[in-house]
Here is the input.
Amino acid sequence: MARLEKLLEMAYSGNLRALGRLLTLVENPGSEAIELLERLTSRAGKAQVIGFTGIPGAGKSTLVSRVIAGLRRRGYKVAVVAIDPTSPFSGGSIMGDRLRMQEHAADPGVFIRSIPTRGIKGGLSMAALAMVEVFDAMGYDKIIIETVGVGQSEVDIINAAHTIIVVTMPGAGDDVQALKAGVMEIGDIYVVNKSDKPEANKTAAYLQFALEKEDIGRRESGWRPRLVKTSAVLGQGIEPLVDAIEEHWKFARETGLHAEKVKARRILLAKMLAESLLSSRVNAAMEVNKTLLEEAAASGRGLFRAAEVVAREAASMLLDSE
Amino acid sequence: MSSLQSTREQVLEGPKRRYKVLVAKMGLDGHDRGAKVVARALRDAGFEVVYTGLRQTPEQVAMAAVQEDVDVIGVSILNGAHIHLMKRLMAKLRELGADDIPVVLGGTIPIPDLEPLRSLGIREIFLPGTSLAEIIEKVRKLAEEKRMREEAEASEQVGQA
Here is the structure.
C-alpha cells in the first residue's frame, strides 16, 4: 500500500495530479478503492454537497459555472462532479459538461471531474458518491454534483446532497408538469433559468403557486423552498441563487440536517458497494449455471428455482473470497 | 475446476476500466469540426472522451488533463501557432507532474515543424488525410502503454512495501 500512502500524502498537501489519480482509484471498485475510502471517510463530512438536477437543456452546466464563480468570490474551494451519459452502444462517452466550466480550469481552487453514467439508472453512481468523500476529505468547502438530467425520476440525489437545486426553464411544460411527482418534489431551491426568454414570468408564477400551496418541495425538515430566476448566459440572478445556497447551508447545520445527510449518503454508498460486490458474484454464478438457466428459460420450467441456485452460489463465492 | 476458477476471476475483476482521452483546442482557432469528428470516433470505439471546447490556453488544457486523470491528451491546431502552444502545454504538464500523459497532435502542420514538435515530446502527429482508424489505433496503443507503466509501478511499490 506504499503507493496509496504516497498519493494520499501528496494530495493532502495540495498536489492536484495526486488528487486526480485518487479519484480514478475510487472510480473503479476494487480492494484499493475500499482501502482508500476507509482512510478518507473519517476525515470527510464537513463540506456542503450541492446537487444540480433538472431537465436536459435547461442550462445546468452554464449555471453551475456561474455558481462556481459566485462561491469563489466568497472564498470557498469548490469541487464539481459532472455526470454525463454513456453510449449504450459502444460503452464510450463524450463528456462535455466541463466545456461550459472551462473558465475555471486554471483556478487551483476549483477541481472539476467528469464521470460517465456507465449505464447506471437513477442518475447517481457509486463512483460519484465515492468522489464526494474524496473531495470532502481533501478540504473542499462546496462539492457540486451535476446530474445527467435524464428525467423525472432522478431522485437518488436526495440522499447524497445537502442542498438540492432543481433547474427548469420557460416553456418546459405547463402547470401540471410543475405538480408532477418525482424530480419536481425534491428541490430545496427551484431555479427558472433562461429567464430572459418569453414566458419566464408565467413559468415562475406556476412554480411560485405550487410552492405556496406546498404541492412541490414539501420537506419534513421545515425548510421552505426558494424560487430564483436566473439567466446563466447573461450572468443574471446568480448572487441571489448563491445567497439561497448559503441560507440553506446555515439551515442544514442549525437543524442537524447536515449530519443526517452525510449519514444518508454514506449508507447509500455502502449499499451500492454491497450491491456491486454481490452483483459481480451473481454474474459469475450465472456463468457457472449457464446450462441450467438456458434449459429452464427454454422450457419455461424451473427458472425461478434456478435463480435461487444462482443466488446461493453467488453468496457462497462472496464468502469464499474472504 | 480450472475453467470455473478462471471464469470467476474474470467476472470478479468487474468491467474493464475504459481508456479516457482529453480532446482540446488551443489558442485563437475557431475550427473544431475535426476535433469533434475525432472525439465522436473515439467515443464510438469505446473511449471515454472529455472535450474542453474552443480557445483554451495550454494551462487550462494541462489542468483539465490532470483533474480528469486522462490516459491520452489529443490536441487539434489549425492556425499555425502549434510550436508555441505545444511548448507551453508540455511545460505546464511537467510543472504539474503530469508529463507521463502522452500527448498527440492533429492539424495542418508543415513538414519542417514535425521534428521540432517531436523533440518537444509529442508522441504522434496526425496530418490532414490521416484515417480515423489510424488515430484510434495509435491513441489506444499509447493509452495501453501508459496503463501498463502504471501497473508496473504499482506492483513494484507493493513489492518494496
About this structure: Chain B has six helices and five strands. The first helix of chain B runs from residue 2 to 12. Confidence is low (pLDDT under 50) at residues 1-13 of chain B.
